[in-house]
Amino acid sequence: MDAQDFWVVIVIGFCFQAQILSSQNLTCNPNDVKALEDFTSSLKTVIHGWGSSFSSDCCKWEGITCNSSSFRVVKLELPSKRLAGNLSASLGTLDQLRTLNLSQNYLIGTLPTALFRLRNLELLDLSFNDFSGPIPFGIDLPSIKFLDISQNLLNGSLPGSICDNNSTQLRVLNVAANYFSGNLPPGFGNCTSLEDLDLSTNYLTGTDDGISKGLFRLPKLTQLSIQDNNLAGPLSEEIGNLVNLVRLDISRNGFSGTIPDVFYSLGRLQNFVAHSNRFGGQIPPSLSSSSTLSLLNLRNNSLQGSIALNCSAMISLTSLDLGSNKFDGPIPSNLPSCRHLSDVNLARNNFTGEIPESFKNFHSLSYLSLSNSSLSNISYVLQILQQCQNLTALVLTLNFRGEQFPADPTLHFEKLTGVIPQWLSTSSRLQLLDISWNQLEGIIPVWFGNFSNLFYLDISNNSLSGEIPRSITGLQCLIAGRISIEEPSPVFPLFMWMNVSGRGLHLQYNKVWSLRPTLDFSNNNLSGAIWPDFRKLRLLHVLDLNNNRLSGPIPSSLSKMVNLEILDLSHNELSGIIPPSLVDLSFLSKFSVADNELYGIPTAGQFLTFSSSSFEGNNLCRYDVAPCPSGQDDPLGTWYGKSSKDYTGVIAGVCFGFVFGIACFIGIDRREKGGEVKRVEDKENVGRGGGGRDQGSEGLTMRRREGREGRGR
Hints:
With 713 residues, this protein is mainly beta. Helices cover 10% and strands 21% of the residues.
């Protein structure tokens, strides 16, 4: 054999060996294949890119990662795939699995015990599903670093075994938004590597000092979220042991007593959120002089005394919320010296005096709420605040009782947006204006139509008169503009005053974008016609003109307001026909024209669902409302409301037709003489949507969670 033949043999040998390896070794382990097949068989949905029809090698299936040398499955990642069904315990046989992520799906049932005994598992994310029942007993996850089972329906107590000595590598534990109850287990103190702990939105309780002492033995903890539980009692001074905390949220619990003065030891703390508890006393000095704190939220407690912030020390403070407490004395005049402070809520306290003159130099101020603070002298307040160059949201509701808006033409706000107590034509960036429930008189200014960014206008419950300015129909943001909301603050809520069934209610909106595009002119003394040009406001969701003195017809062009959900024209002096074209408003969920001088009810679309109270007090002809006056026919040609005499001819015709039909049937039957008579299919249900779902039988279950709308998209 010469040298050339030798190399040919060598090459052929290598190719043959490579073919053997390719056919025998480059596929995932048979036990892993079996586990994955059992997993898919327990689902009600199909996983695209899985199965032998796609590839005989499961390492090539979507979401699967295999070890490059052993070809064992080490990662199973299928988040947001709209998977539905139960979670098979077979996944517990994937003993080399390091990552399991099935979050943002629709999986149900209990959690398999086998999953919590995967000794190589480092990441387990089952969040945003519909798992129920308790966490399995006897957790054995010695390699786990990230565990997230939040946003499910899990219940029972939290097992301390999550943090047994064999779980010391755990860094992130999230069990938020479930139904866990009972005391916080002291075993959490064994998770010495824990950096992020989220126990929020459950029914957890604590020991006599509010929180299990095990939590205070976590030196690496940077995020502690225990809000929205049933924790009570004083906040232990041992909270100061958590020296690496960056964010601490204990809001919406039952903590009481004074806030411990231990914040000097929390040298990295940036956010302290403790609103909606029962804290009393004053703000401790170590908190009111923290150099690292950027957000301080103590709203809705019983704190008292004067507000004494050390602004020279609080160099990082940007957001301060002390609303709904019992603070008294003057509004602190040194707040402008907190040089980065932009969002301030001091509403619903017991302050005395006026806004300090120093506020005219509050150049960092963007959001200010002083509602319900017994303020007076609105002219002086506005003279001061107009000099806040970066002010974008001002809330002064429930102040200045009995005062009138100043006519001073020198008042102007260049960048004012949000809920404000007055309007001026120079507020060119105005997006939201609510001046309802006052005693305003006069006409609606024509220049309201110049606010190109305005999407929410509520001037209801005043004494405004005159016509609705035609310029309102030219609000660009409601015609074709893109509604881009500038949020006034990430933490402060907005309150809208609503009159529901004769009762005044404050409705809270945590985000401005949750408000629907609205024009509410109700409960005034407005007169004149409804402009046909309202049709241009295609992005408007709510049009409320009830309880005025508007007259004339309802324009049929309102049917072009395709996004309209609420249309209330009740208690006016409108006349003519209710336009049949309004049936094109497919999103309309509330409609009322009660107490006008209208006639004719559209008998299609959403109008079939509206109750008689939506039409009462008119000249209408229909079975569930007052009948037409004697001798007057409904111009729509419906028979509803006619007297029995009007039906004499109809009844006679029906009877004659019935007798004639029976006679024909008998004749046909005799002619058939025993032959097979064709069955006439019952067509009663044809065309009635028999295949549709009973809308009334399916309710929406409201759960204590956020963000589920995005699952599996």
